[in-house]
TrEMBL record:
Gene Ontology BP term (one): alanine biosynthetic process
Location within or outside the cell: Cytoplasm
Family listed: Belongs to the PanD family.
Post-translational modification comment from the UniProt entry: Is synthesized initially as an inactive proenzyme, which is activated by self-cleavage at a specific serine bond to produce a beta-subunit with a hydroxyl group at its C-terminus and an alpha-subunit with a pyruvoyl group at its N-terminus.
Encoding gene (name): panD
Keywords annotated in UniProt: Autocatalytic cleavage, Cytoplasm, Decarboxylase, Lyase, Pantothenate biosynthesis, Pyruvate, Schiff base, Zymogen
GO terms under cellular component: cytosol
Cofactor-binding details, from the entry: Binds 1 pyruvoyl group covalently per subunit.
Presence of the UniProt keyword Metal-binding in the record: no
Organism: Candidatus Staskawiczbacteria bacterium RIFCSPHIGHO2_02_FULL_42_22
Protein name: Aspartate 1-decarboxylase
Associated pathway: Cofactor biosynthesis; (R)-pantothenate biosynthesis; beta-alanine from L-aspartate: step 1/1
Acyltransferase recorded as keyword: no
Function comment: Catalyzes the pyruvoyl-dependent decarboxylation of aspartate to produce beta-alanine.
Length: 122
């Protein structure tokens, strides 16, 4: 049996933009994507700490070092610049390998610069 687990998390990131007219997705600074062990095109859930909205979409890598977190398309109605969010990536894990799943948590400051990376704990 396959189970869904968190594989990576970007904790308390700051939304830098929202573009309703873009096709869809979330643009995330490539440095953050890589540090969290996430991938372009991967399904993520984004939780808005301001209003409690949760949204699922896929990752588009943004330019490294710019700190971008931009909600594109329909989620632009629910996420605004300066909102604080938690971004969660998921992976399917065989039940026999559950104990080996070690999620990566990336902590950032108000400008989405990495302050700490922890492996194996949420």
């Amino acid at each position: 049996m396959m189970l869904t687990f968190c594989s990576g998390k970007i904790h308390r990131a700051t939304v830098t933009g929202a573009d309703l007219n873009y096709v869809g997705s979330v643009t995330i600074d490539e440095t953050l994507v890589n540090a969290a062990g996430l991938f372009a095109g991967q399904l993520v859930k984004i939780n808005n700490l301001r209003n409690g909205i949760s949204w699922e979409t896929y990752i588009v890598k943004g330019e490294a070092g710019k700190g971008e977190i931009i909600l594109n398309g329909p989620p632009a109605h629910h996420f605004q610049k300066d909102d604080m969010v938690i971004i969660l990536g998921y992976v399917l894990v065989d039940e026999k390998e559950v104990k080996d799943n070690k999620p990566t948590v990336v902590f950032v400051d108000g400008k989405n610069v990495i302050t700490e990376v922890k492996k194996g704990t949420l």
